């Protein structure tokens, strides 16, 4: 990304994947869509799966995930790099809050 000065590489599936296009459309609404939902990473990440991020403390993220659940969202993909430390962090800090 640095070599391209922030310009994402062109993904041939970017325009054909309906779900991905929906995420990219969200990014046109702004860098932050609500309390914790950031779209800015997708502008430099090539439009892959990491187009949106829920960012904040474990308490903030849990609150947002509950709000999304109330809207009818039933599944979440929670990941970040480095993967193993992030999985451990989520398991220790976030999941207990969601089980309350």
Any descriptors?
globular, about 100 residues, 2 strands, about 5% strand, 3 helices, two-stranded antiparallel sheet, mainly alpha
In short:
The protein is mostly helical. It is 39% helix and 4% strand.
Molecular structure report:
- The chain is mainly alpha-helical.
- Helix content is 39%, strand content 4%.
- It has 3 helices and 2 strands.
- A two-stranded antiparallel ribbon has the order 1-2.
- α2 (58-70) crosses α3.
- The longest helix is centred in the last third of the chain and has 16 residues, at 83-98.
- The chain is globular and about 40 Å long.
Itemize the secondary structure elements and their pairings.
Layout: H1 18-27, E1 37-38, E2 53-54, H2 58-70, H3 83-98
Antiparallel strand pairs: 1-2
Structural class: mainly alpha
Number of strands: 2
Mean pLDDT comes to: 81
* Biggest sheet descriptor: 2 strands, antiparallel
Helix content: 25-40%
Low-confidence sequence ranges:
none
Question: What is the C-alpha radius of gyration, as a whole number of Å?
Answer: 15 Å
Strand content: under 5%
The succession of helices and strands, N to C, reads HEEHH
> What is the general shape?
globular
Strand order of the largest sheet: 1-2
Helix segment tally: 3
Oligomer: single chain
């Amino acid at each position: 990304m640095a070599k391209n000065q922030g310009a994402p590489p062109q993904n041939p599936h970017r325009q054909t994947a309906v779900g991905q296009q929906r995420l990219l459309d969200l990014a046109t609404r702004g860098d932050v869509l609500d309390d914790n939902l950031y779209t800015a990473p997708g502008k430099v990440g090539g439009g892959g799966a990491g187009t949106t991020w829920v960012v904040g403390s474990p308490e903030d993220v849990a609150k947002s995930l509950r709000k999304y659940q109330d809207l009818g969202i039933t599944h979440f993909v929670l990941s970040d790099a480095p993967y193993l430390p992030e999985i451990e962090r989520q398991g220790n800090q976030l999941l207990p809050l969601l089980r309350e």
